[in-house]
Amino acid sequence: MKRVDIKPIVIFRHAETEGPGYLATFLDEQRIPWQLVKIDQGEALPPSISAYSGMVLMGGPMSVNDELPWIPPLLNLIQQAVVADIPVLGHCLGGQLISKALGGVVSRNAVKEIGWGEVSVSKNTTARHWFGDVESFNGFHWHGEIFSLPPDAVHLLASKYCQNQAYAIGKHLAFQCHIEMTAEMVHNWCDVGADEIVSASTSPAVQQADVIRQALPLHCFFLNKVASQVYQQWIKGLVN
């Protein structure tokens, strides 16, 4: 049974294969209602964020710098949420959207990152708040662009090939890496992105599909544990 004492979380999907993944499982377990807006299918954005307790933005193959009609109103909704103290959570493209909305810059990374790769947790009290005792973990990566930190952001994660893997601004979180992955999603991405993996194979941060799929249940098990820790903290900020 869903909780009736809280407004739903709105989750924006920008690509059919890049849904909420483990986050949906987590929210269902916590009995927190959520609503999926499928931008990839042309569903309309809400005019206001006030009907929701939280805002989540998933990944996608497009750039936040593309001239897409839904990007400006979505940036406006992010700004609305921050002003109203409604927590925002972004994964990959979602994190880049948060950065652009709040004064950061999204640009091309020196190399493309695809596959599993270690990310290190920053040594500050804000990072400890979000990640507990976790010092590093294998995140999932699939990006060619990176974000800068907006004003007042606190750095949370870094990898060898991408310094800004996550940051926090109060109750708001932006990730460059993916913590929401499930085994099914990884398989789907490897199939859909097969050509991209081949074309980017010279990058030192790109794994081939067979490597990505190795020990997949174990990778996802540990990543889900990290995600659960983060999501548990994030939902504490939901607005009734």
CATH architecture: 3-Layer(aba) Sandwich
Return the average pLDDT rounded to an integer.
Answer: 97
The strand line-up of the biggest sheet is: 2-1-3-4-9-8-7-5-6
- What's the helical proportion of residues? 25-40%
Q: What is the total number of structural domains? A: 1
Radius of gyration over all CA atoms, rounded: 17 Å
State the shape: globular
- Measure the end-to-end span: 18 Å
Number of helices: 8
Sheet with most strands = 9 strands, mixed
CATH C-level class is Alpha Beta
Number of strands: 9
CATH topology: Rossmann fold
Strand content: 25-35%
Structural class: alpha/beta
SSE ordering = EHEEHEHEHEEEEHHHH
CATH superfamily: Class I glutamine amidotransferase (GATase) domain
Weakly predicted, low-confidence segments:
none
